[in-house]
Amino acid sequence: MKNMLAFAVFLNICVCLHAQQNLGIRNSNYAGVQGALLNPSSLADSKLKLDVNIISGDVVFDNTFLYAPKKSVPLFGFGRIIKGSIDENLFRTHFDPSNPDKLYHLTLSTEILGPSFFMQVAKKHEIGVTMSTRGSADIRGISGNLGQNAFDYFLNKGLWNTDFHDNATRINSMGWLQYGFHYATVLHSEGRSEWKVGVTLNYLVGIAAAYTKNSHINYKITDTSNINFSNTSIDYGRTAIDDFRNARVSHDLDHGHGFGLDVGVTYVRLKEQQTSSTAAKSNLFIPANGNDYLYRIGISLIDFGAIIFDKNSASYHLDAASADFTNWHGSKFSDNTQLDRTLSAVFYNGDSARSLTANHFKMGTPAALSIQADWNVYQHFFANMTIIKGFGHGSGQGAIRPDVYSLTPRYEKEQFEISMPFSLLYYGHLRPRLGLAGRYKYFFIGSDAPGSILKLHDLEGVDFYAGAHFYLATKSKNH
Q: Is 307 exposed, middle or buried, given 0-12, 13-18 or 19+ CB atoms closer than 10 A?
């Protein structure tokens, strides 16, 4: 990593990020434990009596600042994207020199769901366990001048000797392990109406985190020997990135702990039961299972929680009416602490300890309110509407989930299904997306925005998910 990345921890994210909604699978009646990650009540009275997730993963990345020309990325060119990101020869920027204060945005989430399961333990009572590794990062409102300077390691002479300012940048980034314990049941069933509830308790282990907030930055790069700051202040926090370099066992990456909660409720309007003779006369469809429905409507609160990072972690405040970072290009930093002390000395007239405010900080998880509506249009044809509204964290810090508004038609059978989600993603910027997902027996693959990897347009983001799970479907039953 080049020296300039060490200049400010909060800019590492801007430079290093070159990447979960899974709309095409998580609303399926055969989603299994995946569905519980969107609404935990979906497990109750499911079409599956057992589901074992073997391995699955997803990545969602979208931004308005970086892009790769479509001619530079081959069809399904994940290898080229990864290599080009490492070699720093793939991405360009949308920076407009005539409008250096224009604001840009970025969102990233990743998840690897390991061995997990749910099972029916009694009539209409289900339990489950999930184990996952998750990551989330978002940049809201970074100015073009700061983004471009970070992209160029502050060595773009065309941007030297110019007064720039940034008063909006807010960055949140965190990675964590999540262990979920799920319970769902049918709370009330009468006639054709059914109410299902579910709850998930999550135990969280913080791996890494970084944030900035309250940014008021006025700066001018003179040359490689000096950067001048005036009336500048910022709050930031981070875990020790060097721990990754020196980690030998998993507990070396344990930087904190926390808890989370998911709760959900679903109302189901069941199909009216009919005898074979009645159906034959009226030419009506007989449901394969008693729990087939006309429609269902669910509401859930997901990822409500926080992690206290208190191991090799710290928060800082920088504030100065005037400060000069001399010999910035020649500075060498052996670890995070040295960088933090150097910045403190720059902003506080040589006092290398004054910027430290605490040896711990809290990061909120990407909490959201979700509404799901699913309509059985005809036999195996369904139409789904899902809304996911992410929450901010006020004056605190934490991961922020982008808002999602989606409509998804799907054709669904036990052995096969296909869906085509149309969605709007909002993370400070509204992005329309058209996706495609499919499942054959125990394997699924999909993307809510495949355009860039299909070379339909320039690459500004990646959205992809895939996995394998084993399940046992319920037998025909009567309510």
A: buried
Q: Dihedral of CA 152/155/157/161: which sign?
A: positive
**Encoding tokens for residue 216?**
């008021």
Instruction: Please give the Cα distance from 262 to 33 (Å, whole number).
Output: 14
Q: What CATH topology corresponds to 3-473?
A: Porin (2.40.160)
Cα–Cα dist 23/430, whole Å = 17
Q: Token pair for residue 338?
A: 């040295």
Give Cβ neighbours of residue 242 (< 8 Å, ≥ 6 apart). 335, 336
Please write the tens of the pLDDT for every residue from 249-263: 555 689 999 999 999
Q: Is residue 299 pLDDT above 50, yes or no? A: yes
Nearest of 163, 165, 145 to residue 154 by alpha carbon: 145
CA angle 338, 11, 139 (to 5 degrees): 140
Q: Is the dihedral of CA 353, 254, 365, 150 positive or negative?
A: positive
Angle at 179 between CA 178 and CA 183, to 5 degrees: 130
Contacts of 281 (CB under 8 A, 6+ apart): none
Q: Which helix (H) or strand (E) holds 246?
A: helix 242-246
For the segment 59-74, what is each residue's pLDDT rounded down to a tens digit? 999 999 999 998 888 8
C-alpha dihedral, 111 to 115 to 121 to 127, nearest 10°: -30
What is d(CA 92, CA 84) in angstroms, rounded to the nearest whole number? 11
pLDDT tens figures, 13-55: 333 333 357 888 889 999 999 999 999 999 999 999 999 999 9
